[in-house]
Amino acid sequence: MEELLQLHIVIPEEVPDNLHPEINGRFDDVHELLEGHFPVPNKDVPSYDHLGTTVSSSLFERRSDNLKHIDGIEAQLKDWYAKASVFRSSYEHSFGEFRSPADPDNHILLLVTNCEIEEPTIRWKLKKETLQAPPLVLDDEIFHANHGGIFAIDSASGDVLWEADDCQVVQVPVGNENQIIGNTGHEVIALSRAGGEVQWRTGFEISDDEIIDSRVAIGADNAYVGLRNGEIIALSLDTGDPRTLCECEDSVVRLQMIEPGLIATTNNGALYLVDSSGKTEWPDSANIAPSIKHSQDGCLYAGDSESLLAMAEEDGTVKWQVDFPVVNDIVQVGDKLCATTRRDLVLVDAKTGERVWDYHAANEFATVSNPVVVDGVVACVTSSTFVDEEIYSFEQNILHIFDPTDGTELQSFELGVGDCYGLSAENESIVCSAGGELICIENFPTPA
């Protein structure tokens, strides 16, 4: 199946006089046409080089839904450039080959290359700005937020189910079967999961030095937030009524619910277990200042500045610790852990920390982030910043699909340009935010 890899409109260096007004007057129209179908990063001014003028989508996306746009774009270009020759090519050209078979001097080239991408495929796309984090996935619904408020999406269709525009939260919300809860920095807001109606909102009369720093954590009866002044606040899920649970010696930056209770991480790296008996500091944490990334089967997995480690849930005792650069993300893959550093994706044994395989991003400016496990494969995103002719800079994001057994890369899939804010697994699909749109991707390659 022919799939779109690149879309270029190429104008020869020596344009006949009768074409100059038509071509020069259409740059804005062409950019608007392309932007209507694709995320075009270089839309303000066309780029120039000594061989000619190129107006390009700069798309370079191997995406199975792109080819359907070509017919309409081709028809519009033929109408605009009636005195030139608009034609399609199914293979890549060099500049010297940019000539129309019918009229070598007057041409516009619509380049469509065959990259034979059949999987994965895009289930739906939604043009919507989001906060800089992966979405929350609960059952068959997806929840996210932007500076306009919180919104819910049907994971099957991509349709927006509801939007709550009176709660400008600063983090992606959390939720349970009945509620979606977020924080604005100075208040906590609970919404009905079914329709987005505000159930309660609890504000804190605190200064900017005592703002809410932690993401909300949800327990059986309460929601919890940590404040910059060290207080941990419990809020009734039914009413939002607050009470101070305990006080820590530094700003509370992270809260996590685990089986024994609530784990609190402070700005100085100390860890506390907070339960019905009060708070208990884990002594080992003072020496390693770990950042907990994942919990599973009685173990907490964390990273500090130089290592990856496993800690017992009940008392924070370090079970194993291995040398590792700064750990960004951790996800469980059966009895293994998949962790990312700035340029690496690494699979280790969850019981020992022994390295099984790793993937290293070749581009020195690339970052590897946010691994997920979906449909029997491991996926992550690499993001690289490119400068186009020293004028434009844009972020290129590539989704990589790996066989979890041996680390073989099964497929790569270009998510487009612009900021990418990570992946979330949704049943047998992936949901991500890239280039100002939410994308749901499914049908991944099957490991051998």
TrEMBL record:
The residues covered by the Pyrrolo-quinoline quinone repeat domain are 121-277, 306-396
Top-rank lineage group of the source organism:
Archaea
Pfam families per record: PQQ_2
What protein name applies here?
Answer: PQQ-like beta-propeller repeat protein
**Annotated organism of origin:** Natronomonas aquatica
